[in-house]
Specification:
12 strands, 33% strand, 7 helices, alpha+beta
Length: 242
């Protein structure tokens, strides 16, 4: 099988959409991603006359250096187990590096995939705190726009942390952004995708949103989370779109 590795051409978006839906099982999320997160300039794919596999990335920065957050790695089920995904990942790492990306980061879908990505030069580079927190007495909160949230998180994150402003429009499609007196948060249902600031504000935020409890993610040392090439640990890869 001769495999062609390249960015997608005009007219190939329908095949990319079909792959995304098959891999991630949600047609509504596919529509959201291709409306707010997809760019043919931030996509690489494998073909043998038909689409076999693809991946996407968001532009980020790390200590002021150009970085990529790789996302949505997928192969059609009929193509799995044939080495197509491995070829695409190896090609993508080289492609990104030759196109000026000094760091490449991703979040494995499962912890068991860490050894798989190590084969391509990725190393464990960051952890995250993830806790189930119950609501308590409500706190005053206010809603933030995605641009306000982006600016607020820049001020709260250390200089070495990845900034993922380009993925915020996608996250804003299914999450809302809030400020409490001492924290900011991205919330969707009973999932707080990111809490930056004082964790003690989390129970009051949940109560203000009429949530009895939620899973809350924040910078911390709870579990392995991010992998990277060209970035020294520890990094914080917040707002991972898993």
């Amino acid at each position: 099988m001769t495999i062609e590795l390249r960015p997608p051409h005009p007219g190939e978006e329908d095949a990319l959409r079909a792959l995304f839906t098959e891999a991630f099982g949600d047609a509504a999320f596919t529509d959201l991603f291709f409306r707010t997160g997809f760019s043919p300039d931030r996509c690489l794919a494998a073909f043998d006359g038909r689409l076999l596999a693809a991946l996407h990335w968001f532009d980020c920065s790390l200590d002021g250096r150009k970085a990529a957050y790789v996302y949505g790695i997928a192969a059609f089920e009929s193509c799995r187990g044939q080495g197509v995904g491995s070829k695409l990942i190896r090609f993508s790492v080289e492609y990104l590096q030759t196109h000026g990306y000094e760091a490449i980061a991703l979040v494995p879908a499962e912890e068991s995939l860490f050894p798989y990505y190590e084969r391509f030069g990725f190393h464990a580079a960051g952890t995250i705190s993830e806790k189930r927190i119950p609501a308590a007495a409500p706190l005053p909160i206010r809603t933030l726009t995605s641009s306000e949230y982006a600016e607020a998180r820049r001020k709260r994150l250390p200089a070495h942390s990845l900034q993922q402003d380009s993925c915020l429009p996608l996250l804003a499609g299914y999450a809302d952004f809030y400020a409490t007196p001492r924290a900011i948060a991205a919330v969707s249902g009973e999932m707080v995708w990111e809490l930056l600031g004082e964790e003690a504000d989390a129970p009051g935020l949940l109560a203000a949103l009429s949530l009895p409890a939620a899973t809350v993610r924040a910078p911390g040392s709870g579990r392995p989370f991010a992998m990277a090439i060209g970035a020294e640990a520890p990094i914080y890869l917040g707002l991972a779109l898993d």
